Amino acid sequence: MGDQAKLSAGGADYDYPVLKGSVGPDVVDIRKLYGQTGMFTFDPGFTSTASCESALTYIDGDEGVLLHRGYPIGQLAENSSFMEVSYLLLNGELPNKEELEKFEFTISRHTMLHEQLATFYRGFRRDAHPMAIMCGVVGALSAFYHDSTDISDPEHRKISSHRLIAKMPTIAAMAYKYSIGQPFLYPDNNLSYTGNFLRMTFGVPAEEYEVIPAVEKAMDRIFILHADHEQNASTSTVRLAGSSGANPFACIAAGIACLWGPAHGGANEAALNMLKEIGTPDKIPHYIERAKDKNDPFRLMGFGHRVYKNYDPRATVMQSTVREVFEALKVDDPLFETALRLEEIALNDPYFVEKKLFPNVDFYSGIILSAIGFPTTMFTVLFALARTVGWVAQWNEMISDPGQKIGRPRQLYTGPTQRDYVPLSQR
Ligand code: CMC
C-alpha cells in the first residue's frame, strides 16, 4: 500500500491514499470522504485542490518553472514556433519536420469562416468590446458544425480542435476590422499562422501587406507564452462546461468569457491602462502607496500571481521581446521606461517583497502589443486566440479520460433552514 493520509473526525480515523504525480506536490485522494464521513472539504478558489489529473503543463510557482509536456517555456519561446507548441500540447510530443508541415497544412485549411458568419458580426454595435464579439461568434460556431461534434468520437474532437485553432485568428482579426470599419480580409494560407493573422488585422485590400519578420516572431512568441497554463480560471471553466458533454465551441466561448475578467486575461489591458495613468516615473511612488492601501481598490495590474511566488518565467521572455520589437519598429515608448522603473521600485518595496508579488506575463505584453499597433481592447482577444490550443488540449484530455465525470462542486450552505411560505398578503 502506498502512502496514506489520516483524518480524524467525529471520533473515528480514516485513511486516504496519497497520489504521486511525475513531479510536484503529492495529492490526497479524498474521493471517498463524503461517502465515509458525510463531510465535504471547503476550498473556495481551489487554493489546495487538484481538480483533475493532467499531463499537459506543469508549474512550480516557487521556482518559477513552467513546462509544457516537460519542455521549459523559455526553450520553447526561444527555439520553437506557436504551431510546434500547439502540436506538442495536442499530441504530447514535438513534431518532426514532416509532422509539423502536415499540421501547419491542416490548420491552414480551416482558417476560413463560413460566409454567413460575416453577417453575424454586423449584428454587433461598432463600439462593442472585441471580447464580447469573440464570445458570441465562437459560441455561434456551434451552429455551423453539427455534422462533426460527436464528442465521443476522437476524430470529431480532433477536427473541432483544428477548426478552433485555425479560425481564432480570423475571428479575432474580423472583430478588430469591424470595430474600425474596415473590410474583412480573407486568410492567406501562403503565410505563417501568425503572419496571416497580422495581415488579416493590419492589411487592407488596396495594398500588399508586408509581414515584418521581427514582429511576426515577437507575436508568435507571445502566442507561445500564452498557449497553456495548467488549471487556471478559464481552463477550469472550459473543463467544467465540457464535463457536461457540451459541444467544444460552446465550451471555448465559456473560456473566453472567463478570460475576459481583469484578474485573468483582462489584466494585460488593465496593465497598460495603468501605466498610461501613471505616465511618468515620478508618479510611481503615489501609485505604489495606493496599491498598498487596504482601503483603496487599486492594485498594480500585471503584478502578482496565484501560483508564481518567485517570478513568472513568461515575464522574463516578454521583457526581452519588448526590446526586440522596439528595435525592429524603431519605436521608443516612454511607458517602457515607466514600466522598468515601476518593476524596480516595487521589487524593492517590503510590501511586494513580503507578499512575493512579481511582474507577471501581462506586465510587459501590453507595451509590445501597443507598439505593434493593437488597441488595448484587442489585448485579451490575443490572449484568447493563443490560449485556445491549451483549452482544446485540456478539453480533449478530459473527454478522453474514461473515468471523466460531470464537474459538480459541493458547498457549505449558510442560508436559512427550511421555513414555511408566507402568503403575500401577510408579508
Ligand atoms: N497589487 C497590490 N497588492 C496585491 C496585488 C497587486 N497586483 N496582488 C496581490 N496583492 C496583495 C493582496 O492585496 C493580498 O494582500 P493581503 O494578504 O494583505 O490581503 C495579497 O497580495 C494576496 O493577494 P490575493 O488576491 O489573495 O492573491 P491571489 O493569489 O488570490 O491573486 C491575482 C492573484 C493574480 C488575482 C492578483 O495578484 C491580482 O489581482 N493581480 C493583478 C491582476 C493581474 O495582473 N492578473 C494577471 C495574472 S497573470 C495572467 C493570467 O494568468 O491570467
The helix fraction, in percent, is 40-55%
Give the total of domains.
2
**What distance separates the N and C termini?**
61 Å
In the CATH hierarchy, the third-tier topology of the largest domain is known as Citrate Synthase, domain 1
User: Which structural class best describes the helix and strand composition?
Assistant: mainly alpha
Give the oligomeric state of the chains in this entry, treating copies of one chain as homo and distinct chains as hetero. single chain
**Helical stretch count?**
18
Total number of strands = 6
Instruction: Write the CATH homologous superfamily of the largest domain.
Output: Citrate Synthase, domain 1
Q: Summarize the biggest pleated sheet.
A: 3 strands, antiparallel
- H/E element string? EEEHEEEHHHHHHHHHHHHHHHHH
CATH class of the largest domain: Mainly Alpha
Which CATH architecture of the largest domain?
Orthogonal Bundle
Strand line-up in the sheet with most strands: 1-2-3
Overall pLDDT: 93
Shape: globular
Ligand types: carboxymethyl coenzyme *A
DSSP strand (E) fraction? Answer: 5-15%
